[in-house]
């Protein structure tokens, strides 16, 4: 009887803390997200004066981390290590450092994302709350709950956030014990951030891709393989680049200060900073009939890798969305499939190929583009996942066979 009572009390704690986590993370996500959008708009209008200072911005970011919390440089690795029970604490200073570092990266034109920041914010906050309320030290439940809140609050795709958080820490194993609190926290964070004015990307696809013949099914499989290999290429090059620059240029100030000079020059010269920032300009162009060049996807891929590999802050997922969407436009013309539908499939499937996850990419396709193409999303994401080869943008991800 006593064990049953303890279980009920623990479950109630998880539910209440999930609500609290969702509200707090939703507020922080809003501050971070709206700040990032304002910064991005400002940079777009003043790129001539800002991108040339990218090397100095890199030096400032490096100094902030080494001065206040060098451990926080590990970023998402800290979250994975905690989830895998390899460490007990995540520095609370990680939150202001990763937020400010990402804002500075975007202000001065670095090519990076934002989801990693939101996930880290949620994970740190939920981990601290779990400790304060004396939850089991070895439990992943609160960590996953915070990750779901961070992702869901920023992107307002709560179902995607829940399953991403449950399947990403250990690839091949879904942490279902965290389902209820993660679901509550994710929806609470999404509702909170939406109420506070953070907008969601929603592009409902009006038509449906008919899979009435073997030819269309084969083309969808080909799409899945190409998108999966693209995600795998991103993961492979990111890991190799980080290792290469870390070994060849050991001084972090010299590394970011010197390599960012040609990076800034390239970003400055290529179409007025077209490849700076999140890549939402490419996503918008893909779904609104704007100009997409055949090489947009590869340039965005390479410049994002270079930005992150030398020490700038930000996530990888939004650039992956833009890479997938712009590549989809190109492949749609080649394979005689609606380019907009291909862009939507690429948006989800490159994410699958780069993160070594399956359910979350399918769900983001449904939450962002509607349920009309559920079967095509499933087919393309499955094959993207299968050709991934267990490669991931998260080097600390554990793979369970």
Automatic annotation (TrEMBL):
Membrane topology per record: Multi-pass membrane protein
Keyword Transmembrane helix applies: yes
Predominant location category: membrane
Gene Ontology cellular component terms for the protein in this record: membrane
The protein, known as: Chloride/fluoride channel protein
Molecular function as annotated in GO: chloride transmembrane transporter activity
Keywords: Membrane, Transmembrane, Transmembrane helix
Organism of origin: Roseburia intestinalis L1-82
Localization per Swiss-Prot or TrEMBL: Membrane
Record has Transmembrane as a keyword: yes
A UniProt-annotated Pfam family: Voltage_CLC
Source superkingdom: Bacteria
Residue intervals passing through the bilayer: 12-32, 47-68, 89-108, 141-166, 178-196, 216-240, 252-271, 291-312, 324-350, 362-387
């Amino acid at each position: 009887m006593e064990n049953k009572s303890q279980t009920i009390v623990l479950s109630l704690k998880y539910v209440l803390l999930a609500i609290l986590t969702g509200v707090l993370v939703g507020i922080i996500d809003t501050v971070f997200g709206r700040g990032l959008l304002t910064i991005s708009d400002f940079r777009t209008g003043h790129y001539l004066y800002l991108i040339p200072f990218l090397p100095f911005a890199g030096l400032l970011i490096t100094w902030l981390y080494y001065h206040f919390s060098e451990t926080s440089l590990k970023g998402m690795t800290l979250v994975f290590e905690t989830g895998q029970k390899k460490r007990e604490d995540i520095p609370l200073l990680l939150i202001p450092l990763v937020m400010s570092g990402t804002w500075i990266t975007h202000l001065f034109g670095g090519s990076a994302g934002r989801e990693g920041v939101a996930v880290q914010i949620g994970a740190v906050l939920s981990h601290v709350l779990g400790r304060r309320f004396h939850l089991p030290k070895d439990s992943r439940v609160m960590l996953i709950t915070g990750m779901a809140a961070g992702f869901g609050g920023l992107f307002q795709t709560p179902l995607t956030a829940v399953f991403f958080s449950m399947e990403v820490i250990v690839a091949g194993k879904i942490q279902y014990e965290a389902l209820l609190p993660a679901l509550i926290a994710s929806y609470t964070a999404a509702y909170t951030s939406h109420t506070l004015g953070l907008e969601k990307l929603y592009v409902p696809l009006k038509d449906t891709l008919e899979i009435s013949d073997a030819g269309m099914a084969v083309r969808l499989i080909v799409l899945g393989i190409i998108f999966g290999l693209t995600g795998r290429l991103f993961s492979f090059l990111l890991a190799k680049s980080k290792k290469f620059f870390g070994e060849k240029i050991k001084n972090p100030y010299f590394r970011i200060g010197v390599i960012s000079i040609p990076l800034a020059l390239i970003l400055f010269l290529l179409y007025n900073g077209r490849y700076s920032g999140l890549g939402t300009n490419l996503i918008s162009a893909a779904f609104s009939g704007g100009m997409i060049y055949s090489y947009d996807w590869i340039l965005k891929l390479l410049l994002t890798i270079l930005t992150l590999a030398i020490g700038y802050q930000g996530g990888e997922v939004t650039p992956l969305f833009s890479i997938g969407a712009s590549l989809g436009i190109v492949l749609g013309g080649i394979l005689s499939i609606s380019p907009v539908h291909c862009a939507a499939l690429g948006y989800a499937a490159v994410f699958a190929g780069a993160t070594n996850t399956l359910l979350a990419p399918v769900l983001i396709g449904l939450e962002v583009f509607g349920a009309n193409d559920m079967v095509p999303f499933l087919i393309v994401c499955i094959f993207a996942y299968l050709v991934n080869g267990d490669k991931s943008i998260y080097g600390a991800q554990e793979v369970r066979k």
